[in-house]
Design brief:
By secondary structure, the protein is α+β, with helices and mostly antiparallel strands. The protein is 17% helix and 37% strand. A hairpin with a 5-residue loop joins β2 and β3.
C-alpha cells in the first residue's frame, strides 16, 4: 500500500549560513516565516505547502532545481519585484526556448531561474 499520494510534501533547502538565508528567504523573496525549529531550521509557508531551510555542510551542492513555484499570471510581477531587489536571473540554453530579460519562453510557457546565496537553484514558472 502506498498512501504517499495522499500526503503533503515540502521542499527542503540546505544553506551554509542560516541568518543570511533568513534575510534572503524572508526579505528578498518575501516568504512568511511559519516556525523556527531546532538548530536554526526555518519553515516558510508557501501556498498550501512549506519550504524548509536548514543549515548543512552540503549547502549549494545540488546542481538541479531545488524549489519551483507555479506562479501563473503573477510570474511577471514576481520576477520584476525580484529583479528590483537585485536578484540575478540565470540563462540556460534550451532548444526551442527564447530568452529575454531573464525570462525563458517555451511557446508561451514562461520560466525564470535564480539562485539563493548558497547557489541553490530556485525556479518560477507560469503554470
Amino acid at each position: 500500500m502506498s498512501a504517499l499520494n495522499k500526503k503533503a510534501s515540502s521542499a527542503i533547502v540546505a544553506v551554509s549560513d542560516i541568518e543570511r538565508a533568513r534575510r534572503f528567504y524572508s526579505d528578498t523573496l518575501g516568504l512568511e516565516l511559519n516556525e523556527e525549529g531546532m538548530e536554526g531550521v526555518l519553515v516558510y509557508k508557501t501556498g498550501a505547502t512549506h519550504l524548509v531551510v536548514y543549515p548543512s555542510e552540503f549547502a549549494g551542492t545540488n546542481k538541479a532545481n531545488a524549489v519551483v513555484w507555479d506562479c501563473g499570471a503573477d510570474r511577471d510581477a514576481i520576477a520584476a519585484d525580484l529583479r528590483a531587489k537585485g536578484v540575478k536571473f540565470e540563462h540556460y540554453e534550451m532548444s526551442g526556448v527564447t530568452y529575454k530579460d531573464g525570462v525563458h519562453d517555451a511557446d508561451g510557457f514562461k520560466m525564470v531561474w535564480f539562485k539563493d546565496p548558497d547557489g541553490n537553484i530556485l525556479h518560477l514558472n507560469s503554470a
